[in-house]
Automatic annotation (TrEMBL):
<dbReference type="InterPro" id="IPR027356">
    <property type="entry name" value="NPH3_dom"/>
</dbReference>
<dbReference type="InterPro" id="IPR011333">
    <property type="entry name" value="SKP1/BTB/POZ_sf"/>
</dbReference>
<keyword id="KW-0833">Ubl conjugation pathway</keyword>
<dbReference type="InterPro" id="IPR043454">
    <property type="entry name" value="NPH3/RPT2-like"/>
</dbReference>
<feature type="domain" description="BTB">
    <location>
        <begin position="28"/>
        <end position="98"/>
    </location>
</feature>
<feature type="coiled-coil region">
    <location>
        <begin position="512"/>
        <end position="542"/>
    </location>
</feature>
<keyword id="KW-0175">Coiled coil</keyword>
<comment type="pathway">
    <text>Protein modification; protein ubiquitination.</text>
</comment>
<feature type="domain" description="NPH3">
    <location>
        <begin position="209"/>
        <end position="481"/>
    </location>
</feature>
<dbReference type="Pfam" id="PF03000">
    <property type="entry name" value="NPH3"/>
</dbReference>
<comment type="similarity">
    <text>Belongs to the NPH3 family.</text>
</comment>
<dbReference type="Pfam" id="PF00651">
    <property type="entry name" value="BTB"/>
</dbReference>
<protein>
    <submittedName>
        <fullName>BTB/POZ domain-containing protein</fullName>
    </submittedName>
</protein>
<dbReference type="InterPro" id="IPR000210">
    <property type="entry name" value="BTB/POZ_dom"/>
</dbReference>
Length: 578
């Protein structure tokens, strides 16, 4: 810690029952009261150094023994600073340190103890000490900022705080031992200040976060000013974001998971202030941290606009999140475990930010219109959302409209494969047996049968919990698979007469003939199925009939040749035409 002794005399003052008295003179002619303390002093040492004290003493009233009494309650830092001022006026030694220089400087300015009034006055000596000893040293500057909290308002007016924070910002940017060249010198009140070591760029052999711990000890007001100084100097936004996260993790109150959300307003404001310091650039702040802030904001019952801004911010970089991040707890009056509406808004924001209307419309028409980068973004989003849907599908309190809206957050046509979407919808139907047939129809309309893999399509055909219409569509698509396979075999000249002893030719011929036979059988069965469907639709009282759609379909066809033929058909996999 930097220190400096000024003055020649020692031991002039002593304290007696909150009253400072001078040992050198028996009788004092001035009594100055400062916030609970009294100072028995003499006029002339005081009025020689401060025009403010001169005016105060001159205008004060005196009693019979010529003792003038005056009050000085507004002096920055109160009696503590005035004690140093009085000692300086009497020529007593005072020790300047990083912990007292700023409050004392504010008091000296308040008393107008300038060089113009008296040569070698207190302000000039304090400014030299501040410039040469404090601002050039990282640790001393931190200590000085801590000490100015009681006089923060006055120090702000004198721009002392700005000088300290600017000094720290330069060191955080270029290195702890950074100094300014003469043409780059910073100035405060006309006095330049610099460090003693040559410049050193941050990151060259040192960690980028070396200053996080020290800076996090500052009050929120000073920390905000420091971050603002870093930003104006063009510091790396990633480093700034990490510094804010470090500050938030260190000082934000740990929250009780059982809280009802009725938190003090000052805690909510504290969280909003911290988040406002995060750089706005996309991807600079981790999505995981933003989600944790969102969860905390919901628990604190924060401002609605603030929560909305967080959702939009997360929505711009949702592809960087993980499955666990999406489980935002629902702390409102609803019964749902997770806040599905919040996730829906975030996903819609992501789609809005990354895909324009023409791209969505184009892909909905089964055309490849997305760039390679957007295709990767889309794949990450689809995998994330469908995985989330599958996890929340077993929440029995998740109502139909919420699940439908969430599943529909990604417009139809943007998924390349609907396998995971089908599994999520199937899980939701299984866990919500109270769903009506109409609701099942609506939710299954989101599944594009043509976007299902062959194995999943076979599973759909045999899934009795699904609406009949979906099962029939899957059945027809399976037939299309077989037909496409047959055409492909014909185009490859793999169906031919059995000629010669080659075993391979015989096998290919047999496979081709089997496919042709199965295809003819499927056509007949599907024609019969269409007739039966039309007949049942024309029935006057469908509800009273003893044969339901599902039971009819299962009894008529699941045991028949159609399904057997489908299950017996060879898997053509990637050879199926889209």
């Amino acid at each position: 810690m930097s220190t400096l002794l000024i003055g020649l005399k020692t031991g002039i003052f002593y304290l007696q029952e909150k009253t400072w008295k001078c040992k050198t003179c028996l009788e004092s002619d001035v009594l100055i009261e400062v916030k609970g303390f009294s100072f028995c002093l003499h006029k002339f040492p005081l009025i020689y150094h401060s025009p403010v004290l001169k005016k105060l003493i001159t205008e004060s009233s005196c009693d019979e023994i010529r003792l003038c009494t005056c009050a000085l309650h507004d002096i920055p830092n109160g009696a503590s600073s005035f004690e140093f001022v009085a000692k300086f006026c009497y020529g007593e030694k005072i020790e300047l340190t990083s912990s007292n220089v700023l409050p004392l400087l504010c008091a000296a300015y308040y008393l107008d103890m300038t060089e113009d009034y008296m040569k070698g006055n207190l302000i000039s000596q304090l400014e030299i000490f501040l410039s040469e000893r404090i601002l050039s040293n990282w640790e001393d500057t931190i200590v000085a900022l801590h000490s100015c909290e009681p006089v923060l308002h006055y120090a702000e007016k004198l721009e002392i705080i700005s000088a300290c924070l600017e000094s720290l910002a330069y060191k955080a940017l270029y290195g702890k031992s950074y100094y300014l060249h003469p043409q780059q010198q910073m100035h405060w009140n006309g006095i330049g200040y610099m460090d003693e070591a040559p410049p050193k760029l941050v990151g060259s052999g040192s960690s980028l976060d070396w200053w996080f711990h020290d800076i996090s000890s500052l009050s929120l007001h000073l920390f905000k000013r420091f971050i603002g100084a870093l930003d104006s100097m063009g510091h790396d936004p990633v480093v700034i974001s990490n510094a804010v996260i470090y500050y938030a993790d260190k000082y934000h109150t740990k929250l009780n998971s059982n809280s009802t959300g009725n938190w003090p307003i000052d805690q909510r404001m504290l969280l909003e202030e911290i988040v406002s310091l995060l750089p706005v650039q996309k991807g600079v702040t981790s999505t995981k941290f933003l989600f944790s802030v969102l969860n905390t904001s919901i628990m604190l019952n924060a401002n609605v606009k603030f929560i909305q801004s967080l959702e939009k911010r997360i929505g711009t970089q949702l592809d960087e999140s993980t499955m666990e991040d999406l489980f935002v707890p629902n702390l409102g009056y609803a019964k749902e475990v997770y806040d599905a509406n919040c996730i829906q808004r975030i996903i819609e924001q992501f789609v809005k930010e990354n895909f324009n209307v023409s791209e969505i419309a184009c892909n909905s028409a089964n055309k490849e219109c997305l760039t390679e980068a957007n295709s990767k973004l889309l794949a990450a989003l689809v995998k994330l959302l469908d995985g989330y849907l599958l996890n929340v599908a077993d929440d029995r309190n998740l109502n139909f409209q919420q699940f439908l809206s969430l599943a529909n957050a990604i417009p139809m046509g943007l998924r390349h494969c609907d396998d995971d979407l089908y599994r999520a919808i199937n899980s939701y139907i299984e866990c919500h047996p109270q769903l009506s047939d109409q609701q099942k129809e609506r939710i299954c309309q989101l599944i594009d049968i043509q976007s299902l893999s062959e194995d999943v399509c076979r599973e759909v055909v045999q899934n009795e919990k699904l609406p009949l219409r979906v099962m029939v569509k899957a059945l027809f698509f399976e037939m299309h698979h077989l037909k496409s396979s047959l055409i492909e075999l014909e185009s490859d000249n793999r169906i031919q007469m059995v000629v010669g002893p080659e075993t391979e030719n015989v096998m290919e011929s047999v496979e081709g003939r089997d496919l042709m036979v199965r295809c003819v059988q499927l056509k007949k069965e599907c024609a019969e199925l269409k007739k039966e469907m039309k007949r049942i639709k024309k029935a006057k009282n469908v509800k009273k009939t003893s044969i339901t759609w599902g039971s009819f379909f299962v009894k008529r066809f699941f045991s028949g040749r159609v399904i057997k033929a489908l299950l017996a058909a060879p898997k053509v996999g990637n050879r199926i035409a889209n």
